[in-house]
Specification:
The complex is a heterodimer.
Chain A (H helix, E strand, L loop, with lengths): L3 E7 L4 E7 L1 H6 L5 E5 L7 E4 L2 E3 L4 E7 L3 H8 L8 E6 L10 E7 L2 H14 L3 E8 L8 H6 L3 E6 L6 E2 L2 H11 L4 E5 L2 H14 L2 E5 L15 E4 L2 E4 L6 E3 L5 H8 L3 H12 L3
Parallel strand pairs in A: 8-9, 8-12, 9-10, 10-11, 12-13
Antiparallel strand pairs in A: 1-2, 2-6, 3-4, 3-7, 5-6, 13-16, 14-15
Helix pairs in contact in A: 5-6, 6-7
Chain B lengths: L11 H5 L11 H4 L12 H9 L8 H5 L6 H10 L2 H9 L5 H7 L23 H14 L15 E5 L3 H12 L3 E5 L8 H4 L8 H13 L3 E3 L10 H5 L6 E4 L5 E2 L12 E3 H8 L19 E5 L3 H12 L4 E5 L11 H10 L2 E3 L2 E8 L5 E14 L5 E13 L2 E4 L3 E2 L2 H5 L26 E3 L2 H4 L4 H19 L6
Parallel strand pairs in B: 1-2, 1-4, 2-3, 4-15, 6-13, 7-8, 7-13, 8-9
Antiparallel strand pairs in B: 5-14, 10-11, 11-12
Helix pairs in contact in B: 3-5, 3-8, 5-6, 6-8, 7-8, 9-18, 13-14, 14-15
Classes of the chains: A alpha/beta, B alpha/beta.
Chain lengths: 275, 481
């Protein structure tokens, strides 16, 4: 189990796709849910929201950016090699129903998580407008896949190398100004989700975001993933990972994500030295 | 001097004069810097003299004091005689986890509390826990295997959900009774709280691994990375996967928070998270292991139970300069075992009793810098006769960059929310018959902390034993649902 069936590199090898053999998880997985993976018995438990599921083949797909020691270790695994542990599906699935016009906003690797949700929204009969953003054209992922499940697809880059020169919020603002939107789903870096939620709040449009805080077990045991939602403490692993964007304390979430920065630097130093 | 003769040759009178044998321990100033076990264990001679203190009562109270009813006088006398193989098999008749129980059971309120030897003036009870540790360590170190006869295969299949003390007991018992047992665990390694909760220095993880290997040797199939309620649910186990019975022993996994301001500051942890990082993920060995932990310079631990002592002593070993246990009641009212408080104190943990946290204080970077507390005093007794702590209006401040909340845990709703037909109590614990472990859902039994709330390893094992007997009776057709 947990063998890598397919490995692809995107964005100059900084983003990795792994399709993993995990029939039991695939059987149960729904859009919006996540898994926790370990590369080996000394590894960290890393939560990643699934980017795709193939129930017939019994596989799940994850897409992640290489940012620290653990994701670098994941990236070193080749096709045919295995993760030592994968557990899931965890968290609550996305609430998908026909609502009218739904705008799906993805930033960076957040687009990978957004894709199955977008597909669900599309298949449920919604009019789907998707906006995907990245720093430049090389970091735009899943463009074709998103196109297939959207009536309209907009692209934004920070440097203007593709699509609109600007942020996803610029594009979103135009849409909110000109048409009736039933729901916005925004998944990406914390500052992006914060900006989108702040914008949609002024238009009073329901907004769903997917959070990826630090966690260990993913079953409610450690409480490390706690996040303030409307002033109340919630656990992203069992109450989330999706929440009402207008209720999320993004600043608190951001600060908690920085908690281990010093230790991460140590880990990176240690592995650069080959310790 | 009693040591001039072997214990078995001593007369009854000489035996009665033997003082309780001290458990050899690592020196506090050394052990508070490493994760090796604190207790070093009895030598054979220590064990034989200690066991010889038992007066072999006709009607032994200690057996009744033990939640799993170990035949204590019998296994002790075999130690005295030098029949160590017989002794460990006597223990194995009633407990699957003697090396664990010898270390973490609160013997002082169970078997040793009722020991007649301890009732005499200036006499201490027989060190039953220390002897249980001795005999199980001897067996492990000498590769002695349980020779208990396995009953013929019944062809019945049981799913055990959770691999902690309750699950291990049920799995072991039912395997011996000839059933085919599969034990499911949500984490990547089996052992439950023995692995993620209890630290290495109190229970070496080699022991847990060894006990798990014993289960495998009995034919128990162990499946990790399976969250029942998510990866599979209870009805699937019973219907699609064809198990004849399901035992739920998922523990009380959810940490309780204080719900005071500042609890989401960086530097504030649940004891569950802190201990899981250190124990299961081996963060004390970072960066050889990849999971980090923040060691802390000045650490406050909130609560005074066994878990609080584990967290405080772990923080010391990770290099904290000052570790303070903060508790709103008094030392006498602390729920931790006295030996744990004693060990913590020896190692340099400080205590602030009658102090209740009001608010965590952070700096501009959201990092914890201290805790505002209220000074308490003892007021009127509550219904249980325990004096309630009441606020005095005086405040005090504790300087700390790390706070560990260890005020208890409660039931995890993950499995119970996704299982139809399971009746829960007001705290979300599964309602199970106290004698059989039967739940309100047919063919489903439960035991351990998911039914008791937060209790002890041995109580979970005791319930596991009852449930295993009930499951066996049911599967044999001797008991109807």
């Amino acid at each position: 189990m947990f063998q890598i069936l397919k490995r692809e590199e995107m964005a100059h090898g900084t983003i990795i796709l792994n399709e993993i053999n995990a029939p039991q998880i695939a059987k149960k997985a729904k859009p919006g849910q996540f898994v926790i993976l370990m590369a080996n018995d000394k590894g960290e438990r890393i939560p990643l929201t699934m980017a795709d599921v193939d129930k017939e083949k019994g596989s799940i797909t994850i897409i992640y950016m290489i940012i620290g020691k653990s994701t670098r270790l994941f990236a070193s695994l080749q096709e045919g090699e295995r993760y030592s542990d994968v557990v899931g599906p965890l968290g609550q699935p996305t609430h998908i129903e026909k609502k009218g016009t739904v705008v799906c906003v993805g930033g960076g690797t957040g687009t990978a998580v957004l894709h199955p949700i977008t597909r669900g929204m599309y298949q449920a009969g919604n009019h789907v407008i998707s906006i995907i953003g990245a720093r430049n054209k090389d970091y735009i992922i899943l463009e074709k896949e998103m196109e297939k499940v959207s009536q309209e697809l907009k692209i934004c880059t920070d440097d203007g190398s593709k699509g609109r020169h600007g942020f996803v919020t610029d594009e979103l603002k135009e849409i909110l100004e000109t048409q009736e939107v039933a729901e916005v789903v925004a998944i990406g870096p914390v500052p992006m989700m914060k900006a989108v939620s702040a914008l949609t709040a002024t238009y009073d449009v329901q907004t769903t975001v997917s959070l990826n805080p630090i966690m260990i077990d993913g079953t409610g045991m450690c409480g490390g993933c706690r996040v303030k939602i409307g002033g109340e403490t919630k656990f992203a692993c069992i109450d989330g990972p999706e929440f009402d964007g207008h209720q999320v304390d993004f600043d608190g979430l951001w600060r908690r994500l920085q908690a281990y920065r010093l230790e991460e630097e140590k880990a990176n130093c240690a592995c650069n030295l080959g310790v | 001097m009693y040591r001039e003769q072997e214990a078995k040759y001593l007369t009854k009178k000489e035996r009665r004069a033997i003082p309780r044998q001290e458990m050899p321990e690592q020196v506090p100033s050394i052990r508070n810097k490493d994760f090796n076990e604190v207790t070093l264990g009895y030598s054979l001679a220590d064990a034989q003299y200690e066991a010889a203190r038992c007066i072999q009562c006709k009607d032994p109270a200690c057996i009744k004091g033990c939640p799993v009813g170990i035949n204590i006088p019998a296994f002790l006398e075999m130690i005295v005689e030098g029949n160590l193989n017989g002794s460990i098999h006597k223990v194995w008749e009633t407990t699957a986890l003697p090396a664990v129980c010898g270390r973490v059971c609160p013997q002082e309120i169970q078997c040793e509390a009722v020991c007649v030897v301890g009732k005499k003036k200036e006499s201490q009870p027989v060190g039953i826990g220390n002897l249980e540790m001795f005999i199980s360590d001897w067996a492990r170190q000498n590769g002695v295997k349980n020779q208990a006869e396995m009953a013929p295969k019944t062809g019945k299949r049981i799913a055990v959900v959770g691999s902690g003390p309750a699950g291990i007991t049920v799995a072991g018992d039912l395997a011996l009774k000839g059933h085919e047992v599969t034990m499911y665990e949500a984490l990547h390694k089996p052992g439950g709280v023995l692995l993620y909760g209890i630290p290495e220095f109190r229970l070496s993880k080699d022991i847990v691994d060894y006990e798990i290997e014993q289960l495998k040797a009995l034919g128990v199939n162990i499946v990790c990375n399976t969250v029942v309620g998510r990866t599979v649910d209870v009805d699937e186990l019973l219907d699609e996967m064809g198990y004849d019975a399901v035992f739920i022993g998922v523990g009380a996994g959810l940490p309780t928070f204080l719900n005071i301001p500042g609890e989401d500051l960086n530097g504030v942890f649940s004891a569950n998270e802190y201990l899981t990082r250190a124990n299961l993920m081996k963060a004390f060995d970072f960066p050889r292991y990849d999971t980090p932990i923040i060691p802390g310079k000045n650490v406050a631990v909130l609560g005074a139970g066994n878990v609080a002592m584990d967290a405080a002593r772990t923080a010391l070993r990770l290099g904290a300069k000052n570790v303070t246990v903060v508790y709103r009641r008094t030392r006498e009212q602390s729920p931790a075992r006295h030996v744990e408080i004693h060990h913590a104190e020896e190692e340099g943990v400080q205590f602030r009793f009658l102090t209740s946290p009001l608010e965590f204080i952070g700096d501009a970077n959201n990092q914890l810098v201290g805790i505002n507390c209220e000074v308490m005093e003892l007021g009127e007794p509550d219904e249980g006769g325990r004096q309630r702590p009441v606020p005095t209006g005086k405040h005090t401040y504790i300087d700390c960059d790390l706070a560990i909340i260890a005020i208890g845990t409660h039931a995890n709703p993950l499995l119970t929310n996704t299982t139809k037909g399971l009746k829960l109590n007001q705290w979300g614990n599964i309602e199970a018959d106290t004698k059989t472990g039967k739940t309100t859902k047919e063919r489903v039994w439960a035991g351990g902390d998911i039914t008791l709330g937060q209790a002890t390893v041995i109580l979970a094992m005791g319930m596991g034993r009852e449930a295993a007997n009930s499951i066996d009776d049911y599967l044999k057709g001797e008991e109807v649902w």
